[in-house]
Design goal:
The chain is an alpha/beta fold. The protein has two domains: 69 residues, Beta Barrel (Ribosomal Protein L25, Chain P); 168 residues, Alpha/beta knot (3-Layer(aba) Sandwich). Helix 2 packs parallel to helix 3. The strands form two sheets. Strands 7, 8, 9, 10, 11, 12 and 13 form a seven-stranded parallel β-sheet that branches. A six-stranded mixed β-sheet has the order 1-4-5-6-3-2. It has seven helices and 13 strands. The structure holds S-adenosylmethionine. The site of S-adenosylmethionine (SAM) has 18 residues, from helix 7.
């Protein structure tokens, strides 16, 4: 029977501690007792662990579960991919964050593009904590050994111009010749024995503005197509990660 997996808030070489909502769930819903075994993610590594002690939080405190770490177990590292997602309708964006986490994305950078709806741009900063919770839960559910970083939202142009040593790819619905597959083959060839570190940018519902396409080009981003059909941004995110996974994993 596969052991439940928890991502610890604090840990050291021999122990790990769960706090907050996860600990509450373990104590109040699962009624965990000392001796219960689990997989615990601590410091980006996964350990076979056993519950050593529980405090149920009592008056006003939050619950806490302490584990002894027994032995490190095989873990699935994230794919070396950062998704740069132009902020779009929050329910669809949250779905995309959850699926991208399941697919192994390493980080997500929410950006404000020219055609990002103004009210979404204004509200984005307040949504980041919720996006981080969604990524945390999806990482746990998909038994990842890490949680993708969700960056604070920033202007697209600031991110496009920022220096980076990643292979930078922009999904461009107007692109007709270069494909994501072709760009990955090039990057894999150039990276030799290493895995290439990728950054993939996805536009908003309204697509990229012409000056944004020029900015990508001027800053060395490679425009690629995902095929002749126009995909929703969240579909493009999933499709792109699936292509990357098929070539890198
Ligand atoms: N406004 C665009 C249109 O209707 O032509 C649609 C933009 S699409 C909803 C959002 C983003 O998904 C695009 O900016 C692009 O990054 C990505 N995308 C969608 N379909 C794509 C395709 N066939 N090739 C490459 N990228 C695509």
């Amino acid at each position: 029977m596969t052991r439940r997996r928890w991502i610890a808030e604090q840990s050291d070489e021999a122990t790990a501690t769960l706090a907050g909502a996860q600990a509450e769930h373990m104590v109040r819903v699962l009624r965990a007792q000392p001796g219960v075994e689990a997989d615990v993610v601590a410091g980006g590594r996964v350990f076979h662990a056993v519950v050593a002690g529980i405090s149920d939080g009592g008056s006003g405190e939050t619950a806490e579960v302490r584990f002894n770490l027994i032995a490190e177990v095989e873990s699935e590292p994230a794919m070396p991919v950062t998704l740069v997602i132009s902020i779009f309708k929050f329910d669809h964006m949250e779905w995309a964050i959850e699926k991208a986490t399941e697919l192994g994305v390493a980080a997500i950078v929410p950006v404000i593009a020219r055609r990002t709806e103004k009210h979404l741009a204004l509200a984005a900063t307040k949504r980041v904590e919720r996006w981080r919770r969604i990524a945390h839960e999806a990482a746990q559910q998909s038994r990842r050994s890490d949680v993708p970083a969700i960056h604070d939202p920033l202007k697209l142009s600031d991110h496009v111009k920022a220096a980076s040593n990643l292979k930078r790819i922009v999904l461009a619905e107007q692109e007709r010749t270069a494909t994501l597959r072709g760009a990955l083959e090039e990057a894999i060839g150039a990276a030799g024995a290493e895995m290439p570190d990728l950054e993939i940018a996805i536009g908003p519902e309204g697509g990229w503005a012409p000056d944004e396409e020029a900015l990508f080009d001027a800053n060395g981003w490679q425009a690629v197509s995902l095929g002749p059909r126009i995909l929703r941004a969240e579909t493009a995110a999933i499709a792109a990660l699936a292509v990357v996974a098929s070539m890198l994993e």
